[in-house]
Structure formats: structure tokens, C-alpha cells
Amino acid sequence: MKNFEKIFSILCLSIPVAACAASAVKPNYDVQVSKYEAQKASIGAADKFTGQVLVDSNFKSDLEDGYSGAMVNFEAGARAAWHSHPRGQTLIVIEGEGRVQAKGKQAQVIKPGDVVWIPPNQVHWHGAAAEHSMSHIAIVEAEGGRATDWMQHVTDNEYAKAQ
Amino acid sequence: MKNFEKIFSILCLSIPVAACAASAVKPNYDVQVSKYEAQKASIGAADKFTGQVLVDSNFKSDLEDGYSGAMVNFEAGARAAWHSHPRGQTLIVIEGEGRVQAKGKQAQVIKPGDVVWIPPNQVHWHGAAAEHSMSHIAIVEAEGGRATDWMQHVTDNEYAKAQ
After folding, report:
1. Angle (CA) A84 A87 A91, round 5°
2. Chain A 51-80, CB below 8 Å of chain B: which residues?
């Protein structure tokens, strides 16, 4: 999941997250396998992320306001902006080393196999460590179709204190 | 995630799945990191799985009948019994090579990055390839607290035809 150069060279290089989200598996009534090599990864939008972020392996429940999610791949130094989720978020770390920080709290180191629960409306950010990439599965449930409220970027100073 | 010998030697060797399920992250109102090394893996119960299966990185929404799931690690040759889910299931393959098969259909090969959607009430099984281990994240939503209906084992003959 970490081969950013390769992925960048073959997958929707200039397509924003919203457009690429259409590549999420659409539930239907046959078992459906969305092959990795046929997926279109999306690039984390510059107003929501700092650094190189690629999103793939999108998935979705077939319930209204059910779960949805993806694999989110952060290059070293990359991170989400401050944000919150009306119904919370689960992260399962798959590769590398990252950080998660709730507003006003110390950042925490996260590594493969760690599971993070971010409660509803908790302002926070997550991303890679400064010296290591990090990939995690992220899962949210929506509330009236809304799953995330985005805020300002994590500054270089805030990020440096989290290392 | 594949080091079964190590995991077996340190984690709840004789604790059934139901007891180990209590190690799932319990949502609360602080950001909560469940460290991998502090988790208690559970062993796939012999009436639900064939071969060595370990479950860790458990997670759960805080909504009633919201999503729940885990990382499921199948050793080579290991597989779930035939089963179905009242609200369907998502699998995200993380490592190795596996198979998924709907009743009456051909088995499909699944590899890292692949996303599988199994529709509600579709009888199916999933597991490792005969010669390779396989780890996937599995996500379900419950219906009245029930997420899975288990059936008979996948026979050696059925499994051989899926290779």
C-alpha cells in the first residue's frame, strides 16, 4: 500500500477526492470483489490534508447512514486537517507509524494493529509520523448524510510538537 | 499480523471467541487507542472455522446495531464455515491470498487491497488459500443484535475445488 510513486503513476492523478469516491464498492445482491488493481485511488484534497495522502479500498454499507470507509495512506509528514465526525470514527492501523491527537491533549503514537476510537464531535487529527509513512483503515457512520466536519490545517508547529 | 506462533504463545490460548470479544474497543468520550500488544486475540471457534484462525484489532461503533468488526487472520488452508449476515458484510483484504465463494457460484481469489461486498443473507464462506495465509478486516452491521448465521463446515472437497 505504500508504493506512492507507482500508484501516482497509474491512478487518477488529478482527480479530487469527491470524484474518486465514486469508485467505492456499491452494494448489490451478488458477492462483489473490487480488485485493488482496478480501483481508482483518490488524492487527499489540499484543503483537508497536508502532504501526500492517497485513499483506496473504498467500502460502504448498503444502509442509509450506515458505515463507510477506506484505506488512507499518508506519506511521512502527511496528516489530515483538524476535523470531527458527528458519529465518531474508528481507525485500524495497518502499516507504518502515525499520530492521533485530540484538541487540547497530547498526541499519541499509533502503530499496526492498534485500534483508535474517536468519539462523536471530538476535534482531532491523524496522520503519519514525520519520519515514517502510515496507512490505516478509517470507518465512519453518517448523520443525515454528513460524516465529517473539516477545520483548519495542522500547522507545522503543532505537528512538530506531536513527534 | 501473520506470526501465529508468537501470538498463540502470548495471547488467550484457551479463551473462546465469545470471551475474547470483550476485548473489543468500547467507545467512550475520550480518544481511545487500543494498542495491538495489549489486545487479547481470540481463536476462531472449531464449530465456525476449519484450521487456525486468530481474531484481533476488534472494533465497534457506539450505535445500537451499528458496525462492528476485526482483523481475521487465517493460516493457509483455514476457512470460515458457510454462513450469512442479515445486513451483509464488507471484507478488506490486508495480507496474503484468500478465497471467497457464494453458495452455488465459483470461488473468487482475493488479494491485498481487494474489497469484498457480501449482500444480506447471501450464504458464503471466506478464508485463506491452500498454500497462503490471508488476513482481512471484516465489518458487519447487526439486525436486532444478530450479525451472523452459521451453517455447516466447508468440506475438504468443497475447499479443494476453490483452489
Report:
1. 70
2. 56-63, 66-67, 69, 71
Cβ–Cβ below 8 Å for B27 and A119: yes
Distance from the Cα of residue A35 to its chain's centroid: 19
Q: For chain B, say whether A122 makes contact (Cβ under 8 Å).
A: yes
CB contact under 8 A, B117 and A90: no
Q: ipTM of this model? A: 0.84
Residue A55: closest C-alpha in chain B: B113
Q: Residue B155's CB: how many other CB atoms inside 10 A? A: 11
DSSP code per residue over chain A: ---HHHHHHHS-TT-BHHHHGGGS----SS-EEE-GGG---EEPPTTTEES-EEEEEEEE-SSTT-EEEEEEEEPTT-EEPSEE-TT-EEEEEEEE-EEEEETTS--EEE-TT-EEEE-TT--EEEEEBTTB-EEEEEEEE-BTTB--EE-PPPPHHHHHHT-
Q: pTM value?
A: 0.84
Q: What is the mean pLDDT of residues A139-162?
A: 97
pLDDT for A71-109, tens place per residue?
Answer: 999 999 999 999 999 999 999 999 999 999 999 999 999
Q: How many of the other CB atoms lie within 10 Å of CB of B95?
A: 17
Of B25, B59, B66, the CB nearest to A141: B66
Please write the tens of the pLDDT for every residue from A39-67: 999 999 999 999 999 999 999 999 988 99
- How distant is the Cα of B36 from the closest Cα of chain A, in angstroms? 5
What CATH number does residue A148 fall under?
2.60.120.10
- Residue A10's domain comprises 4-161
**What are the chain B neighbours of A106 within 8 Å (beta carbons)?**
none
B102–chain A Cβ distance below 8 A for any pair: yes
